[in-house]
Amino acid sequence: MSRTPTAAPAKRRRLLQDNPSVLWFVGLLGLFTLGVTVLSEGFGIGLISTNLVKILGMTLCLCLIAIAMDVVWGYCGILSLGHFAFFGLGGYAIGMWLMYARTEIVIRQSLAGGTIPPTEREVSEAVASQIFSVVGSNELPLIWTFAGSLTFQLAMVVLVPGLLALIFGWLAFRSRVTGVYLSILTQAMTLALSLYLFQNDTGLRGNNGLSGLQNIPGALHVPQAIISVWFFWASAFALGAGYLLFAWVVSGKFGSVIRAIRDNEARVRFLGYNVEGYKLFVFTLTAVVSGIAGALYYPQAGIINPAEIAPIASIYLAVWVAIGGRGRLYGAVIGAALVSLLSSWLTGGGAPNIDLGFYRIIWTDWWLVMLGLGFVLVTLFFPKGIGGLFDYLVRKP
Amino acid sequence: MPRPALIATLALCLIILWPPTPLAAQTDTPLQDVLQTVQEQVASPSRAQVGGVLDVLQETDAPGTADFLTRWAAREVYERPEDGLFFYAREGEDRALTLIDLDTGEDVAEVTTREVNQIRVNAGVRREIEGALVTFELLAPDRARRLAAVRTIARSPEADHIPVLESALAEEEDGAVATRMARVLDLLNARFASDSATRVAAIDGLSGDITTEARRALNQILNTESQVAPEIPEGTNVARIRTPGEDLDLIDAYARLADAGLVPPRPGRNAIRDALRANVSDGAVAGIPVHRLDTEEARREAYRLLQDDGIVPPLPTQAEMDAAVAEYVFFDAYLEPDADVTRAAREALDSTRTRIGVWQFVNISLDALSLASIFFLAAIGLAITFGVMRVINMAHGEFIMMGAYTGYVVQTMIPNYTTSLIVALPMAFLVTFAAGVALERTVIRHLYTRPLETLLATFGISIALQQLAKNIFGTQARPLTAPDWLAGSMAFNDVASISTIRVAIIVMAIAFLLALLFILNRTRLGLEVRAVTQNPGMAASMGINPDRINMLTFGLGSGIAGVAGVSIGLVAQVTSEMGANYIVQSFMTVVVGGVGSVFGTLAGAGLIGALQKGIEWFNPGNTLAAQTFMVLFIILFIQFRPKGIVALKGRAAGD
């Protein structure tokens, strides 16, 4: 763990002055958004396919959860292996509304042709049997009671991951579970959640997950080319806002305290700080941001299922942040963008296979081996990750 | 068992064991001659006449009679039209048949299927023949054959079997067989005997019997049927009276009345909707505009208006339904009319409840024990690397996988399963020991001061190894077959049993525990390991090379994971992801048990195994739910005992 002593600034400087990288980042993000919009099929000259716009938008969401992970791990020292669970919960919360509302519209249209109008009960029964017939049920589970309300489900996007993180964090931090034990415990939480969602009778369609999320109720006639750009904008905005928020959180006195907790928790406690409170705040805040990132990600992915929440996903999240560089927000963004784009390029068959004569390198087979070994090398020799390269460019005072 | 298979089984016994000295007096008349006396009935058997044939055959009891009966029932007997003789036949190519003499078993002639008639036996006749065969078998001189016949009867009991079995029991001399016959006779009598006293006596004889067949017989006697009547008819054997409003829903009660044809059916929501649809005129139903019919109340109102016009069947009001239901009695009646019999059956069934409960508990405990041993095997290597050395090895699961694949590779090279297993165990140890040492030398050695980074780096290794295994062996699950002597199962009774392979896993877990305790507590290596983990600096100054010890310890932990992989591979499937399935649970086991203690790991495995099976008992058939609740429980458990079950104290605790 790097122990760079953070000298307290003599006087309070403004956020942007203190962190020139924030300005750079927001500027670059704005340019990137503009560029993608101009090149997109929906609003521009069509050089970038709708599918690619979606992939880029999803990558922005992954960058958002990566900076959340960076704050909780790189700054506060909690190696959480559960943040992708919060991401998935956010996706499920919004997915319930997307699926319910769209099915309801379709059902109402088909029932409207009848001689007498349908009752509310008939509609909700038809919706339920439409959605849940895959798991052999035709009743609407209790948790779907308000699925027709966008406001309620949006609140759930924030509340479900937030409350889960609050309760779990309170239990874990209160009993002073730290270090690797905490990592294992968060991993267990993720495992329990994904096992729970895998069951058919928990009301979220078991391993079928929620699907058809790319169709936005109220905009069913709008082509995907346009919707993909809308979501790209929303993701870019969320990433920019999240970046500013976290840059602000980690820059002031609060940031100093959580870095101090990372470096030596006991000393901070002896100085009279409520260490548990700080950790709980950071853990919950990042969980909420993860939930929001998930809520933006899955409408672009179109489908969510419990496999997304499996412990391995959260591990990959840690891998991105570590490769990008812990303890600096732009590092997390670089890591997440680079690794996830490279991964979808190489495993999606985009990269040409290399024929060595005696052996044919098929990237889909070897990418994970490379990623794993590369990650080991980064951990061993470049603890600062790719972001550490910027230290050579920018002389730090 | 389907009838043809059953007959085939009996036939097999007969062919192998047809005796030189049957109990009944045997004549030396050739079977062919006997059959010729009833030629027509044999050639075209009918249900009405087959009894006569069977009587003749049973009386004369010519050699080969039972064999003939089975083949006859299986349509393997042929008649040659020109002389009316019967033959068995062997099929050749192109519809050619080789006729075989019934008595000598010699080939007689080559014919085509056109030249002979295959004797077709219908289902009714086949049943008659089978009954006759049972009698033959029950009186057979060979003990195993008599037992097999009794077993066949127990499997598909019929009233006709009672007299046959009774007469066989009277002649039975072997004690064990007689007991078995008496038990099956009880089962038959309990269900089929003609007078109530015999049945009650038979049922009393079954009380306390926890076998499936006994409980099935009793439950069949206790089958009930829901009925409704103005008052309970005379002679009805009532199981339970249902009171509408308490244990019977009013709507359901009314629906039952409608089903019995006692009241007109109550139109449901769909019926109301359809009726309204059928009566729309000028955009309104009975004066109510169609667009208003989007609530249940409005629809019912419109329906009542239609009803007043007499167009649709009436929709009863709550009061009407109450009144209708109040006029009738709702009750469940036993299909068995005899109250004494059902009472005895109920008592007999109740008497078994406690014993079944106890045995079910035993069964669950055995399951839990075998699951715990699997967890223990998966976690025991971690107990060394994580527990003793405090190194987080996330690639531990992949070492388990590597061991299992080693077993698979060895098995492809050595076809004998027993030998290959014996070779695979040390091979797996060597392979994973080497892998562990390599990992320790190249990666972990540099990270002893940074535990979180060890966790990350070993993640990387784990990802790479998993994909590598996928590249080499493919995504398909590979079999690791246990030798035959591990294939069976040990059954204590019909309720509790455990498969032999699981017993072997339990034995293996115990062997591992002992071996590890021995190495850690009784050998030079163990002493040095404990010294290095407690205080590397001090150990080094005593002349121990900490580097070497760390390397060997890590290798030992990994090697044990490999051997565990072979044993786990025998019960689970060998895939590249098998390790990942165990890794979280393994860490849980070590953390719950208490880091740094082998006994702790044992306790942790025991707790987790018992917990999972216990939860499964309350919610049967839902393993996922059990796992979910188990993980939640562990998270809570760590709240209250952060150091695990067996918490080290003092200097050994290391903090």
Structure description:
The complex is a heterodimer of chains A (397) and B (655). Chain A is mainly α and 397 residues long. Chain A is built from 15 helices and four strands. Chain A has one domain. In chain A, the strands form two sheets. In chain A, strands 1-2 form a two-stranded antiparallel sheet. Chain A has a two-stranded antiparallel ribbon with strand order 3-4. In chain A, strand 3 (354-355) and strand 4 form a beta hairpin. The longest helix of chain A is centred in the first third of the chain and has 30 residues, at 83-112. Chain B has 655 residues and is of the alpha+beta class. Chain B folds into four domains: 3-153, no CATH class; 157-223, no CATH class; 225-334, no CATH class; 358-598, no CATH class. Chain B has helices at residues 3-17, 31-37, 39-43, 47-60, 65-73, 123-138, 143-155, 161-171, 175-192, 196-206, 212-221, 250-259, 269-278, 296-308, 318-326, 339-388, 396-413, 417-442, 451-473, 500-522, 524-534, 536-541, 546-571, 578-593, 598-618, 623-640; strands at 77-80, 85-91, 96-101, 107-112, 117-118, 224-229, 238-242, 284-285, 288-289, 329-334, 489-491, 497-499. In chain B, strands 4-3-2-1-5 form a five-stranded antiparallel beta sheet. In chain B, strand 1 (77-80) and strand 2 (85-91) form a beta hairpin. In chain B, helix 7 runs parallel beside helix 9 (175-192) and helix 8 packs antiparallel against helix 9. The radius of gyration of chain B is 37 Å and the shape is extended. At the A-B interface, helix 5, helix 6, helix 7, helix 12 and helix 14 of A face helix 13, helix 19, helix 24 and helix 26 of B.
